[in-house]
Amino acid sequence: xxxxxxxxxxxxxxxxxxxxxxxxxxxxxxxxxxxxxxxxxxxxxxxxxxxxxxxxxxxxxxxxxxxxxxxxxxxxxxxxxxxxxxxxxxxxxxxxxxxxxxxxxxxxxxxxxxxxxxxxxxxxxxxxxxxxxxxxxxxxxxxxxxxxxxxxxxxxxxxxxxxxxxxxxxxxxxxxxxxxxxxxxxxxxxxxxxxxxxxxxxxxxxxxxxxxxxxxxxxxxxxxxxxxxxxxxxxxxxxxxxxxxxxxxxxxxxxxxxxxxxxxxxxxxxxxxxxxxxxxxxxxxxxxxxxxxxxxxxxxxxxxxxxxxxxxxxxxxxxxxxxxxxxxxxxxxxxxxxxxxxxxxxxxxxxxxxxxxxxxxxxxxxxxxxxxxxxxxxxxxxxxxxxxxxxxxxxxxxxxxxxxxxxxxxxxxxxxxxxxxxxxxxxxxxxxxxxxxxxxxxxxxxxxxxxxxxxxxxxxxxxxxxxxxxxxxxxxxxxxxxxxxxxxxxxxxxxxxxxxxxxxxxxxxxxxxxxxxxxxxxxxxxxxxxxxxxxxxxxxxxxxxxxxxxxxxxxxxxxxxxxxxxxxxxxxxxxxxxxxxxxxxxxxxxxxxxxxxxxxxxxxxxxxxxxxxxxxxxxxxxxxxxxxxxxxxxxxxxxxxxxxxxxxxxxxxxxxxxxxxxxxxxxxxxxxxxxxxxxxxxxxxxxxxxxxxx
Length: 694
Ligand code: ADP
What we know:
By secondary structure, the protein is α+β, with helices and mostly antiparallel strands. It is 52% helix and 12% strand. It has 5 domains: 9-207, Arp2/3 complex 21 kDa subunit ARPC3; 214-346, no CATH class; 348-455, 2-Layer Sandwich (Beta-Lactamase); 462-535, Signal transduction histidine kinase, dimerisation/phosphotransfer (DHp) domain (Helix Hairpins, Orthogonal Bundle), CATH 1.10.287.130; 540-694, Histidine kinase-like ATPase, C-terminal domain (Heat Shock Protein 90, 2-Layer Sandwich). The protein has helices spanning 22-44, 58-68, 75-92, 100-121, 137-165, 170-194, 196-201, 224-244, 255-264, 267-286, 298-346, 365-370, 404-409, 457-496, 503-535, 545-556, 581-597, 657-667; strands at residues 350-355, 360-363, 390-391, 414-421, 430-439, 448-455, 541-544, 568-572, 576-579, 606-612, 619-626, 671-676, 683-690. Residues 590, 594-595, 598, 626, 628-631, 639, 644-646, 649, 653-659, 683 line the site of adenosine-5'-diphosphate. The site of adenosine-5'-diphosphate has 22 residues, from helix 17 and helix 18.
């Protein structure tokens, strides 16, 4: 099997740099080598008249870029090819031949030193050896520094050669240094900017992409009209300052198009444009056009032109990068603000920022809701948020000095304090748990308090209901215990008095004690069922109603203990529901049990369990009909309350069965209610349960 895993992930276009194949490495060396030699030949044409000194020296920039972008894979080939290219370039330049080794050495030494310095002074290189896109002005400054030192080394070796072979000159030395530095800076920086997208694509998997909204050499293509205007202005300036008025030093006017390009177009375009301005100016000077051409000393003229190119390039580039950095920072800040906004809008807790003047600086949607406002208020309207309608838990209105943010400003610790908010007329009160904390703010700005609010209305209602429920449970459990204690005391006093107890009376007393114990057992059993109905995780599935009903009916079709005829239970329920079978069984058991139980003494209980699926609805309606004593309309809603029992009907029970049924049905998303029986007598319990999704 081929080792697929070892194949490096290649960016879409592997140009010159990146994970290259062997053929591409050769191609890279050829391309850069040819560019190096051609640039050298071109540069020789800019020889300052009467000297052997070229005005510009682009091969330095190409060599610096060559080794800077060299990777472990291409290093040997790169160094070898650079040496060959430098050798060829020196040889084709002509005599003196003794200078050839100096030319080669100076180029190689400069390129190696430049790479070492860039790696040491900038974070341009990633861990995997590839280069990041150039994006910060600080990196450009470091690159300029590295180019200055490397350019000095190159000039020094070149000068050493000249001094040994012919004769040295301080001014030429200075010019060479300047020339090399400018060449390295302009070419390396421009190439890095033009290749920004490509460098970004080389990032290892998992690294976030560069946040540079203005990258791309061709960004200017989006504004063709402005580009034409920029070109026309530049040409006009050249015509005036170099052509028509060469005696006046007007070349500084070229800063206008340079600043224009820097502020309106991307850094790559700005760098290319500045380079273009510099090269054109040098070309014109060499052709004897413009004010620089008028400088008598050709070396001085070359030096001044070079300085002009350096300054135009540096200004344009720094301006453009600063602008890009600013735009990126703004973009990032806006993104963060949007994210924060989304978080604040989504979060369920109310969050507000109030300053010491009482002005609400910020308020999220949840806080707005808690205050009963329909929309987030316009906070530009200082103090327009109604901070009223707050009460303590005893119902006393919170006076302004007792408001939570005011107390936090006074240095009090305000944590998890409950208060009642009466939002608006007719809207129910909400109980809100509030925490208020002083926020750190810059000196000189009004102090601010962060108020967080959590709506605990339902939580509190739930715990109140739980407390009431516990009270009722305790009360209902105490009743049979009192009975047991009472009859035990009767027995005790009878035995203490030495009264004999006949067996019939003894059995009667014991039966009462046992009856109370049985009631307690039933109550505890029902309580357990109630907890189960409330807390057991719902495991819904397709349940055939008739299967479940058959099981339940089998338990209730037996004759009752009071010699009443056995009940008849009819089933007509073929539908399928989406429910938890264990809990639904409990519901049917309670309903059928009640239907059989709450019947007049001499009447044979007749029960019918029917189901149907209403047309076009996703529910199944189940009815449990009986011929029992019925429930008065006034009691119908209350029979579902826990522990509620219709008074005086003489039937035993706990009052929990129907509340269990209601709980289970509601947890399924269904409903339960009770109506008249089928012929106006008895009762009909109607359940609506979800039908399974087909
Ligand atoms: P329990 O049956 O243990 O008292 P339930 O919650 O099941 O508790 O019922 C609450 C009350 O509703 C009962 O006390 C009874 O008065 C009334 N009830 C329930 N089912 C029926 C029925 N099918 N017919 C008449 N009354 C009923």
